[in-house]
């Protein structure tokens, strides 16, 4: 079967097609991605993988045409980022 793996950085997005055996899991896809030359710079958190936008465990069985999303670790805690944006807006308004 063929699946697509995607990874995004703020400045670029990557998409790679993988051929896997029927019944392959997310762990199988990750093993193949680690060996793929186009994925060398990907920093993937194995606990943050998704299929069509839903986080799934490594034991998740993939199906033909699935879109595996490799999520990067957060650079900033979301609460901290919101607080910083709110502070910056308050400072520019007055």
Break the fold down into its secondary structure elements and pairings.
Layout: E1 2-8, E2 13-19, H1 26-35, E3 49-51, E4 54-56, E5 67-70, H2 78-93
Parallel strand pairs: 1-5
Antiparallel strand pairs: 1-2, 3-4, 3-5
- Over all CA atoms, what is the radius of gyration? 17 Å
Query: How many DSSP E strands?
Result: 5
What do we call the CATH topology? Ubiquitin-like (UB roll)
Architecture (CATH level 2) name? Roll
Low-confidence stretches: none
Task: Please describe what this structure looks like.
- The chain is of the alpha+beta class.
- It has one domain (2-93): Ubiquitin-like (UB roll).
- It contains two helices and five strands.
- The chain has a five-stranded mixed sheet, with helices on one face.
- The model has no long low-confidence stretch (mean pLDDT 83).
Short summary of the structure?
This protein is an alpha+beta fold.
Key terms for this structure?
94 residues; alpha+beta; Ubiquitin-like (UB roll); 5-stranded mixed β-sheet
């Amino acid at each position: 079967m063929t699946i697509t793996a995607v990874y995004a950085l703020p400045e670029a997005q990557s998409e790679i097609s993988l051929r896997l055996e029927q019944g392959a899991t997310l762990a199988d896809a990750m093993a193949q991605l680690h060996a793929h030359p186009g994925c060398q710079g990907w920093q993937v958190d194995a606990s943050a993988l998704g299929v069509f936008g839903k986080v799934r465990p490594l034991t998740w069985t993939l199906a033909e045409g699935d879109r595996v999303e490799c999520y990067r670790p957060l650079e900033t805690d979301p609460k901290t980022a919101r607080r910083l944006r709110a502070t910056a807006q308050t400072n520019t308004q007055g």
